[in-house]
Amino acid sequence: MADISSLGDLRGKRVLVRSDLNVPLDGTTITDDGRIRASVPTITALSEAGARVVVCAHLGRPKGEPEAKYSLRPVSTRLAELLGRPVTFADDTVGPSARAAVQAMADGDVVLLENLRFNAGETAKADEDRAAFADDLASLADAFVSDGFGVVHRKQASVYDVATRLPSAMGGLVHDEVEVLKRLTENPERPYVVVLGGAKVADKLAVIDNLMGTADRLLIGGGMLFTFLAAQGHEIGTSLFDADSVEACKGYLARAQESGVEIVLPVDIVVGKEFSADTATDVVDADAIPADAMGLDIGPRSAELYASRLADARTVFWNGPMGAFEMEPFAAGTEALARALVAATEAGALTVVGGGDSAAAVRQLGFRDEQFGHISTGGGASLEYLEGKSLPGITILSD
Ligand SMILES: Nc1ncnc2c1ncn2[C@@H]1O[C@H](COP(=O)(O)OP(=O)(O)OP(=O)(O)O)[C@@H](O)[C@H]1O
Ligand SMILES: O=C(O)[C@H](O)COP(=O)(O)O
Questions:
Q1: Potential cystine with 129: which of 124, 146, 149, 370 (Cβ 3.0-4.6 Å)?
Q2: CA neighbor of 155 nearest in space, from 131, 125, 119, 113
Q3: Which residues contribute to the annotated binding site for ATP?
Q4: From ligand 1's centre to the CA of 235, what distance in Å?
Q5: Which domains, ranges and CATH numbers included, belong to the chain?
Q6: Which of 306, 192, 191, 284 is closest to 229 using CA atoms?
Q7: Reaction catalysed by this chain (predicted)?
């Protein structure tokens, strides 16, 4: 697949780079800058080659119009610090501010555009509804570099459509991520264990179907576990839950039994009255969640069970925290899981942690990147890659 060198001499060329700068924020404070760090090498390489680097990215899931809490401005400040050079922040994505900023660029300069998702055209489902925004974005540049691995599974204007409008290349981050994930899809050493958690419940439940064809064991935690408990007929109180996926979960449980894939669910749950660090907590059996309680972490017996199911693994992929780890009372399950993964790595297994929040979780809990085989910047993207799905942001580069 074409890398940056395929774009020829970049001096004076305006290059639009799609990065994934979707970092966790506490107000305007970045709580984990891993994705920004991962984006630095490609931006630096382009800038050093004399390109005028126009970086575009999203933050969170705003609904097609500006929302102050999703502004990329704090990211711009951190990006400049990490690059060691100024970054001009445009207050809009393709409007007057963006145009003026790009117009004023000298060779090697870096501009960051405001959140792509402040424009409805970025995420519109129908191709024709993304076209005008894609045209506007493409008009800011002479070439396009796709470097946001975390979004390559999205058929969105900045990921997919711009590549049909400009000479395009794959950035080093996307290339490197794919090389690691290939090792998980091409004949992984067994047992191959996939651990799933997190909050994007509907997105992630959908991947289980395909993972059952490749993984030997699936350990389920985080927000998605409650849809499984509901499928087993248990009370789940006010826990996160995807009603539309209950039937699918029943099907997964039945299929797992037939096919010999092990689906491991928690045996105990840490519950709170509400989604808050100060709420009163309790540990209850997984089939005895009170109707007025919310499940916010896997319990200590479950953490032990999951560690035991990871002990003999030769390949592990983990996406999604086991609980609401940002709040101290609900971090123990994720911490125990991370410890089990470190042990598996030390025992020689290939371990990959995927996802913005999962990576943030392990770092926030004091683990170092080197303690795992690989920390991927993509959550949903890496899962869809493992499922064997074709990823729009990658296939469009080879067309
Ligand atoms: N039981 C739970 N109830 C509510 N939220 C939960 C629960 N368990 C985990 N979470 C939340 O899940 C979030 C992370 O989920 P997400 O699916 O976004 O992970 P990710 O795949 O690592 O990230 P990304 O999709 O950004 O790459 C965390 O903010 C955490 O608080
Ligand atoms: O956080 C992620 O996984 C990526 O940045 C993609 O975000 P999305 O799931 O909102 O498209």
A1: 124
A2: 125
A3: 204, 295, 326, 355-358
A4: 22
A5: 4-175 (3.40.50.1260), 187-387 (3.40.50.1260)
A6: 284
A7: (2R)-3-phosphoglycerate + ATP = (2R)-3-phospho-glyceroyl phosphate + ADP
**d(C-alpha 139, C-alpha 311), whole Å:** 53
SS (H, E, C) 292-342: CCEEEEECHHHHHHHHHHHCCCCEEEEECCCCCCCCHHHCHHHHHHHHHHH
pLDDT in tens, 261-294: 999 999 999 999 999 999 999 999 999 999 999 9
Show binding-site residues: 20-22, 35, 58-61, 117, 154, 204, 295, 326, 355-358
pLDDT confidence band for 73 (50 / 70 / 90): very high
pTM value surpassing 0.95: no
Give the DSSP H or E segment for 283: strand 281-285
Mind listing the pLDDT tens digit for each residue in 366-395? 999 999 999 999 998 998 998 888 999 999
Q: Which ligand is nearest to the CA of 153?
A: 2
Known catalytic residue: 223? no
* Contacts for 95 with CB less than 8 Å, ≥ 6 apart: none
